[in-house]
Write a structure and sequence with these properties.
Elements (H helix, E strand, L loop, with lengths): L1 E6 L4 E6 L4 H10 L6 E5 L5 H12 L3 E4 L3 E4 L7 E2 L1 H4 L9 H8 L1 E5 L12 H9 L2 E6 L2 E6 L6 E3 L5 H12 L4 E5 L5 H12 L3 E3 L5 E5 L8 E3 L4 H14 E7 L7 H9 L3 E5 L2 E5 L9 E2 L11 H9 L4 E5 L9 H7 L3 E5 L2 E5 L8 E3 L3 H13 L3 E5 L11 H7 L3 E6 L2
Parallel strand pairs: 2-15, 3-14, 6-7, 10-11, 18-19, 22-23
Antiparallel strand pairs: 1-23, 1-24, 3-5, 4-5, 7-9, 8-9, 11-13, 12-13, 15-17, 16-17, 19-21, 20-21
Helix pairs in contact: 1-2, 1-7, 4-6, 5-6, 6-7, 8-12, 10-12
The site of uridine-diphosphate-N-acetylglucosamine (UD1) has 22 residues, from helix 1, helix 5 and helix 6.
């Protein structure tokens, strides 16, 4: 295993290049299953989750070529099974369910099971497919689903689900008739998937709002598409700049994708400058507390909660962070406490009292975004911080140490004996 060792309190400045969005790339890779012929996606991030998705597609018989761009051709699609070994490492594997039902009329996908940040069921996906004429059984840890043919349906989601909305949107694109998704997720990644499906010839209307209407078509055609920048990577570097800047330009990044975060940063007294395709943060000022509630888009993203907590730990006064999306997403708190943060958990709210400084310690990463938060804490802390079990970070951040080093931070990755 590896760990990252950080020498804290080095000023960072300069421009950081943001990679393509992981959570946009994964559904687009799944959408390739809907088409025979070569799809080409550029700006694909180099991440472990993308490699896992590639392995899964190849397991299904799909041809994948990976250079700077990724090219995917599902002409050879022959298997309808997504095995446990692949699904367990990446929940987003569930995204093959919709496309496989549309193409092969049957599918066997391992149930993703729990993960560090909560139970994360897929009942809303399954409810939607049942309404579209799919028979579903759960057997030996697998979802077994079969249909005589997908048909359009009106689906009311009980909770806003990103991959649930994406899964049903993909299936509905090749279903007979009209599907209407109510209480659909409005995340930018959902909008990008709808745009790409429309380029493929689908007829989707309303993505980005609560109601998405999909007219099924009989076939789709291959596309070429450039993936949008990763808003969570961008947000993470904005917090890094706020804590350890200097002036840091985060680009490419799309301010409207980060509006809730930008407003909270400004409430915390962070100085920002936005352009159409970049955001600049000026660190070094005094920070003040703010209250945050995580919500589906356009609310404050749960994927930025852990990183923002580090900022609030060093902000004057008291802040409250309420996590409403996942039930168990405060695992990083005990590690931040070990670095001197003053945080108290009450139910799904963390009460954060700002401290003057954090101090370096050995801490353990528990999930992807928690790993990012511990690196941020290490950048701001006095002395040396060692973040162990750092493998989580490679699922979602491309070359994070190199990017931070490029800005002047002092950190290295070493083997952890
Ligand atoms: C996606 C993102 C993830 C982000 C999350 C919330 C991808 C690949 N991952 O995950 O980074 O943290 O959105 O913004 O895009 N739920 C149910 N039943 C379901 C589905 C979801 O109860 O069938 C619940 C979940 O347990 C959770 C909430 O709904 O409490 C939101 O989950 P969801 O939007 O589905 O998250 P993911 O799509 O897995």
């Amino acid at each position: 295993m590896e760990k990252i060792i950080i020498q804290g309190r080095k000023k960072i400045s300069g421009k950081v290049n943001i990679a393509g969005a992981k959570n946009a790339a994964l559904p687009l890779m799944a959408a390739s299953l809907l088409v025979d012929g070569w799809n080409t996606f550029s700006n694909v991030p180099v991440l472990r989750d993308i490699r896992t998705a590639r392995l899964l597609l190849e397991h299904l018989g799909v041809e994948v070529k990976n250079g700077k761009e990724i090219q995917i051709n599902a002409k050879g699609l022959h298997s309808y099974t997504a095995p446990y070994e692949l699904v367990k490492t990446m929940r987003a594997s569930i995204l093959v369910l919709g496309p496989l039902l549309a193409r092969l009329k049957q599918v066997k996908v391992s149930l993703p099971g729990g993960c560090a940040i909560g139970a994360r069921p897929v009942d809303q996906h399954l409810k939607g497919f049942e309404l579209m004429g799919v028979k579903i059984e759960i057997e030996h840890g697998y979802i077994k689903a079969k249909t005589r043919g997908l048909k359009g349906a009106k689906i009311y989601f009980d909770v806003s689900t990103v991959t649930g909305t994406e899964n049903l949107m993909m299936a509905a694109s090749l279903a007979k008739g009209t599907t209407i998704l109510h209480n659909a997720a409005q995340e930018p990644e959902v909008v990008e998937l709808a745009q790409v499906l429309n380029k493929m010839g689908a007829q989707i209307d309303g993505a980005g709002s609560e109601v998405i209407t999909i007219e099924g078509v009989s076939a789709l055609k291959p596309v070429t598409h450039e993936i949008m920048p990763d808003r969570i990577e961008a947000g993470t570097f904005l917090v890094a700049g706020a804590l350890a800047g200097g002036t840091v330009e985060v680009a490419p990044s799309i301010p409207s994708h980060l509006a809730a975060l930008l407003q909270k940063l400004e409430e915390a007294n962070v100085k920002l400058e936005t352009k159409e395709n970049s955001i600049t943060v000026k660190g070094g000022g005094s920070l003040k507390g703010a209250n945050v509630t995580t919500l589906p888009f356009p609310g404050f993203p749960t994927d930025m909660q852990a990183q923002f907590m580090v900022l609030l730990s060093l902000s004057e006064g008291m802040s409250a962070i309420t996590e409403t999306v996942f039930e168990n997403r405060f695992i990083h708190v005990s590690e931040l406490q070990r670095m001197g943060a003053d945080i108290e958990i009450k139910g799904n709210t963390a009460i954060v009292r700002g401290v003057k400084h954090l101090s370096g310690a050995t801490v353990m990463a528990s999930d992807l975004r928690a790993s990012a938060s511990l690196i941020l804490a290490g950048l701001a802390a006095r002395g040396t911080t060692e973040v162990t079990r750092i493998y989580h970070i490679d699922r979602g951040y491309e070359a994070i140490e190199e990017k931070l080093r490029g800005l002047g931070a002092e950190l290295e990755r070493v083997k952890d004996s």
